[in-house]
Amino acid sequence: MLRLDAVTVSFGERTALDAVDLEVAEHDTVCVLGPSGSGKSTLLRVVAGLQEVHSGRVLLSGQDQTGVPPHRRGVGLMFQDHQLFPQRDVAGNVGFGPRTHGMGRAEADRRVAELLDLVGLPGAGRRAVTALSGGEQQRVALARALAPEPRLLMLDEPLGQLDRGLRERLVVELRGLFRRLGTTVLAVTHDHGEAFALADRVVVMERGRIAQAGTPLEVWQRPASAFVARFLGFDNITPATVDGGTADTAWGKLPVPDDIPQGGGQVLVRPGGVLLREPREGLRCTVEARTFRGGDASTVTVLLRPDAGPPLEAACTLRDAPQEGAEVGVVFDPREVVALGDPHGAPDAAHTPAPRTAGPGQGPLVRPGPGDGGAVSPEAAP
Ligand SMILES: Nc1ncnc2c1ncn2[C@@H]1O[C@H](COP(=O)(O)OP(=O)(O)OP(=O)(O)O)[C@@H](O)[C@H]1O
């Protein structure tokens, strides 16, 4: 459906997109994730035809879009701030695209009613958009973006301004809606929880480049670099030398999975792999703090200060969480130890899945769950 070939965009000295290759298969939802300034919005603008490329090409359904103006590309774009027309009512907003494309009034009215049903606002056509809640405006904006039946729907921080509870609900609804309609979606967000809940594939950007692309589960289970791991909220990262079944680290010798690359590099230990024991066992640590993870008060992150090495985070249930100031021992679960690629963010070839162009329904769905501030969290992943 969509292909970017080595797309580069520069603003003066600043390279916003640096030879980006990307594919989005028909019916897939791809979420582009990344910190502020990593190039996410520029990527959408390039596909929409709102931003010229300095080199490379954008292809939609195999056709080079060079020189094709935005309104002829057949893509829909929904911005973070909705950009609804305040002087028009809900129906006027949703019907705007079809009407300007020459659809008759009766047919456009039917379409508007259909779309309002679809987004959960049946009968809201005559309401003033200024009198709607943020979540309702969001739905109207979505219905308006869907109305011209774009071959590709692009969403820029679609749930960015909504409160957390609403985002959690809407992200599940959106996913269901896109599945039912078979819409092809390219969305950008800086919230990894949202991306993991919505996407068949996620693309993590770092300074204008793709740091990793894969299914949510692949990226979550095997972050390709320290940058990706830290962006996903993992902090237990340390240099390591792997020899056989152990890694020599600042925390001592860690057991590692059999398939981990040998030699020098960095490892990540996911918090679930930091197991709390009696103080006599394993690496001795002091409990510095305990924090709740997102909305799930039963899961706690325990921040540990080890006798040796950088701080560690352990995940455990509230029931099992030791008190602040307590002394504990830590042992490591090798299944939660992951080798990371280049610390500067270049993908580790061994762990970066090749871009996939599969059809719908093949990506794992990571259900909303507890998270550290995100709308939904991939921590619910298996
Ligand atoms: N019109 C412009 N003129 C100059 N620099 C720009 C322009 N648009 C974007 N940039 C720069 O290009 C880089 C990428 O910007 P972009 O808006 O794509 O990032 P982003 O990942 O969407 O960020 P955010 O999450 O903050 O929206 C940034 O360094 C930004 O300052």
Automatic annotation (TrEMBL):
Coiled coil segments of this chain: none
InterPro entries in the record: AAA+_ATPase (IPR003593), ABC_SmlMolc_Importer (IPR050093), ABC_transporter-like_ATP-bd (IPR003439), ABC_transporter-like_CS (IPR017871), Mo/tungstate-bd_C_term_dom (IPR008995), P-loop_NTPase (IPR027417), Transp-assoc_OB_typ2 (IPR013611)
GO-annotated molecular function: ABC-type quaternary ammonium compound transporting activity; ATP binding; ATP hydrolysis activity
GO cellular component assignments: ATP-binding cassette (ABC) transporter complex
Record-linked Pfam families: ABC_tran, TOBE_2
Gene3D superfamilies, A to Z: P-loop containing nucleotide triphosphate hydrolases (3.40.50.300)
PROSITE patterns linked to this entry: ABC_TRANSPORTER_1, ABC_TRANSPORTER_2
Keywords: ATP-binding, Nucleotide-binding, Transport
Domain (ABC transporter) ranges: 2-232
Region listing for Disordered, in residue ranges: 339-382
E.C. no: 7.6.2.9
Protein name, per record: ABC-type quaternary amine transporter
